[in-house]
Amino acid sequence: MASTTVKFSATLSKTDPISVPVLIVGQEKHLSSLPYSAVKCKLEPRVNEQTFKSALSVLNPCPTDTCPLFLNTATLAAISNNHSRHNSSAQPHMLTKLINLNSAGYNECIVIVCERKDMFASGCAAARAFYDYCRKTKIYVGKLKEQKKSTVTVTVEFLIIPDSNGDNKVEKEEIATLERIANAIKMTARIVDTPCNDMNVNHFLDARADLNINPTIISGEELKKKGLGGIYGVGKASSIGPALAVLSYTPHGATETIAWVGKGIVYDTGGLSIKGKTAMPGMKRDCAGAAAILGAFHAIVKSSFKQNLHAVFCLAENSVGPDSTRPDDIHTLYSGRTVEINNTDAEGRLVLSDGVVYASRDLNAKVILDMATLTGAQAISTGKYHAAVMSNSEQWEKNVVSAGLISGDLTFPIVYCPELHFCEFSSSVADMKNSVADRSNATSSCAGLFIAAHLGFDTTNQWIHVDIAGPSHYGERATGYGVALLTALFAKYTNDLLLQNVSKHIE
């Protein structure tokens, strides 16, 4: 099997399509004004100027179109100029699709023609087109063997359209940051694509090894002793116990404390409220929130982050067994509030509630963001491409939407109205139930409100909730969603040149 290394460059190198396949891709308006001289170093001697111009003239993206320039090793691809206000101007989903469909599958070069403001989203989109996890086999001389591991190098080169001042310069430092974020996206996707027999709670904890940060880990029966009844109750039936793990980055001179809390359900059977045979496949992806936070943490702490940052992972396997939580059981969560379980498949909100309270109480975080594949209803509410965001802060809600547009990890707000919706969790024997009474009443919002209730609706914390159930995967593959969003959203807290430029576009 091949893993893909994605490298970036701000200049075009000279290559021959015979030995290094090339895809030149961009919006139609940028390609149509592109002189042959700007790309001839990627095409000569196989493609002349006349052929290049002829290809440009027949491109009709609606929303995309491609034209081969030389055999299947030189291709021109165009994206429509039109996009709505709820889409990134880089049109990253179309870009990922074009790269994926036209990839040669071996060492190759992709030339992205774009404006400077779209470089960040475009680079992240390119990274999403390549997958690392694979366990396919191949027959060798009549015997079935696992494919040998190999590494494919994809070089992404940017051709930046000059702005109104004629500036199209990109610094090496910016390219290095983009490469770091792209690798984090691919790492996140690899974790999410990996099945639970290779990515259980213990394996997930090992994935942070190269950070050289000693984690705080509370696991197994210790969770129960410390009152973390949400995480413990969800994971106690598994042969590998649940855990709350924290990675803490505390630079000298920090004045603020931020916490990212991720849902890390490494597999979700639904518990005793077991999922059906068509709903359960794919539930290895229920750790996508925690995986995104791990990837973003990897990327941003290496980008001169200035404030205290804690990554909190709520890890468990929601299994069926003699120790499974039963519907009607009542658990006491870390907040001290009691929860009557009426649906063991509504487990993500239980682990996250413990996580956000731990972030507030034990880590003294004032800005708390949780990210999770929380509800199937999210894809109904905001679709497969836009994560659902809700917050007790109007400004943070706006910031998340802006960060989605500049990063390509799109988001859209859902209703935050606890006075109308939290009554859905009413219980006659506990402080609340864990699943709603009316499943047609803003269920994604209600799920978020359950988490907020454990912080308290009158909390002074600034709380942001991001439900990524839809955009965390495309078909059977993970997208690495969340890494680009978080690095863009918190870009202002870094001294990194690329992220500082990104932060200028965040409200």
Automatic annotation (TrEMBL):
Alphabetized UniProt keyword annotations: Aminopeptidase, Hydrolase, Protease
One protein family per Pfam: Pdase_M17_N2
Domain of life the protein comes from: Eukaryota
GO biological process: proteolysis
A GO cellular-component term linked to this record: cytoplasm
Cross-referenced SUPFAM superfamilies: Zn-dependent exopeptidases
UniProt key word Protease: yes
Cytosol aminopeptidase domain span: 343-350
UniProt cross-references to PROSITE patterns, sorted A to Z: CYTOSOL_AP
One GO MF term attached to the UniProt entry: manganese ion binding
Protein's UniProt keywords contain Protease: yes
Record-stated family: Belongs to the peptidase M17 family.
Official protein name in the record: Cytosol aminopeptidase domain-containing protein
